[in-house]
């Protein structure tokens, strides 16, 4: 990614957060998201095939920006880079995880859920972060409340957001995009219903 492309918050209104159980789902789901107008995918490192899914998408769907989500350790950050990930997302952040993700050279969104965590991330020089778990941690009222006291921080809220609630997050001045798994329901992936994923992606893309 060139420096001007390093912001992860301004590419798409909704970052699809995807849990792939079967490697065969990876490339078709990425193609369906692109067809729906969302050329970004966050593959969560929650299943045994996740790294191979990142590798397959990086190889076969060059038009999508593929990243790794649920990065919990510096070792996982390194594994994700080796698999071809182009960005990283973590649900929370410790000093060693922040350093490990920074060491990869990739753009990344560390997870935050409190004002002190937001300030700790800002201290490292980063201004973009994930807000997770968004709904459980205060949702729109939380983000709206910190926009004025902590204006430097910009967020991708994720966790519990739906097609119905996404727009209220996107209307906030400190939100660039939201993340969510509602575009790629487990049953649609299992059934190979790529048309449904494409439709859900197109509806999400229209929120931009
Ligand atoms: C994440 O990893 O960001 C979340 O699991 C996505 O949250 P959701 O499944 O509630 O959309």
TrEMBL record:
Concerning InterPro entries, the annotation shows: Aldlse_KDPG_KHG, Aldolase_TIM, KDPG/KHG_AS_1, KDPG/KHG_AS_2
The yes or no answer to whether the keyword Lyase is present is: yes
- Note one Pfam family from the annotation: Aldolase
Pathway(s) of this molecule:
Carbohydrate acid metabolism; 2-dehydro-3-deoxy-D-gluconate degradation; D-glyceraldehyde 3-phosphate and pyruvate from 2-dehydro-3-deoxy-D-gluconate: step 2/2
UniProt entry tagged with the keyword Lyase: yes
Top enzyme class of this protein?
lyase
The protein's UniProt keywords, in alphabetical order, are: Carbohydrate metabolism, Lyase, Schiff base
- The EC number on file is 4.1.2.14
- Catalytic reaction equation(s): 2-dehydro-3-deoxy-6-phospho-D-gluconate = D-glyceraldehyde 3-phosphate + pyruvate
What is the top-level taxon of the source organism? Bacteria
Q: Which family does it belong to?
A: Belongs to the KHG/KDPG aldolase family.
Question: Which proteins does it associate with, and in what oligomeric form?
Answer: Homotrimer.
Q: Which protein are we looking at?
A: 2-dehydro-3-deoxy-phosphogluconate aldolase
Give the organism the record lists.
Nocardioides koreensis
The uppermost taxa in this organism's lineage are: Bacteria, Bacillati, Actinomycetota, Actinomycetes, Propionibacteriales
Report which gene this protein is encoded by: eda
């Amino acid at each position: 990614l060139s420096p001007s492309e390093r912001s992860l918050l301004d590419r798409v209104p909704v970052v699809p957060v995807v849990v792939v159980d079967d490697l065969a789902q990876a490339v078709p789901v990425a193609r369906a998201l692109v067809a729906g107008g969302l050329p970004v995918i966050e593959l969560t490192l929650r299943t045994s095939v996740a790294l191979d899914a990142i590798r397959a998408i990086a190889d076969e769907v060059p038009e999508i920006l593929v990243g790794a989500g649920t990065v919990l350790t510096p070792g996982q950050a390194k594994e994700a880079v080796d698999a071809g990930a182009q960005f990283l997302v973590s649900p929370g952040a410790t000093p060693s995880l922040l350093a490990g993700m920074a060491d990869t050279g990739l753009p990344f969104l560390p997870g935050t859920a409190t004002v002190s965590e937001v300030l700790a991330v800002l201290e490292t020089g980063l201004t973009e972060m994930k807000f997770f778990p968004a709904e459980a941690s205060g949702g729109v009222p939380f983000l709206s409340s910190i926009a004025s006291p902590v204006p430097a921080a910009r967020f991708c809220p994720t966790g519990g957001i739906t097609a119905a609630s996404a727009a209220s997050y996107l209307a906030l001045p400190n939100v660039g995009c939201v993340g969510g798994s509602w575009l790629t329901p487990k049953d649609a992936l299992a059934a190979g219903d790529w048309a449904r994923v494409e439709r859900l992606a197109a509806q999400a893309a229209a929120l931009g």
